[in-house]
Amino acid sequence: MLNQIDLSRTDLNLLVLFEAVLETRHVGRAAEQLNLSPSAVSHGLGRLRRMLGDPLFLKTPKGVEPTDRAKALAPAIAEILAQVRGVVATAQPFDPRQSTRRFIIGAPDGISAVILPRLLKRLDRAAPNVDIAIRQLLPKQGEHEPGLAWREALDELESRAMDIALIPTDDVPIRFTRRALYEEDFVIAMRAKHPLARNLSIERYCAAQHLVVSDTGDAYGFVDNALAKKKLSRRVALTVPNFMFALATLADADLISALPRSFMATHGAAHGIVAREAPIKLPHFKLTLVVPTVALKDEGLGWLVGEIEAATAPKRR
Q1: CATH of 4-91 among 1.10.3720.10, 1.10.10.10, 3.80.10.10, 1.10.8.60
Q2: Model pTM?
Q3: What is the DSSP string of 145-204?
Q4: N or C: more exposed end of the chain, with fewer CB within 10 A?
């Protein structure tokens, strides 16, 4: 990417700046993250643009968006920074009790809402000054092949927009390290006094009004696939954008929804929501921690992977 002449006058901090702008998609937020002024970030971007011969980031009403060239460079820059961080981590061993690092974890909210409470308890004891940011991950709409549905999450890992992804598939390329956390399935959620709480036959299930979690509003999902195999169908009366919104809605409506079992066990009772076994076979999935293998040269990241594994261990089946 850089020739010898460039390296003789290249500031490594420019690559760190590139990473921050790529992650935040905003010059001001990148400046806050790096403890710099927005003008300093803009000036640094100017130097980087001249060095790489590309605009790199284009202004939008909401911030900036990377150019195709920036997207192409992102994996290489992420690998360079991961290697440098690995060298530094080796020279100065990571101490969670003293660290003030900020890690970014990407996950669907039905997963992060289960793992985060237990993880935070562990970090409060072992790493009181380490900060965590959660990014909401969503599968590609209309894509039913797991390896393709979560490709954007893998791209974000390689661009260092986040450090770790927690996704419901283990179908990832070999350049990623994957750790199985637990297996998950779905139950049918409804308010405790719902008419179907005592008798959830397949006929009553199909006749009920259903709620589906869908960020785009697309009502068709894996439940409909399972029903179609038996030549059955249902009415989706409502879609909501995330699982926590689903719980709040189910508490005050005669709707039912297929939700992850562990998510329901963690949050259902607080909302007065009960879980019933589905009257039809629904798919299981493996929850997998995914991280670029090269990034594990970072001792701090390796430590966080271990903490997440420990936090999810009680839920393994």
Answers
A1: 1.10.10.10
A2: 0.70
A3: -HHHHTHHHHHHHHTTS-SEEEES-----TTEEEEEEEEE-EEEEEETT-TTSS---HHH
A4: C
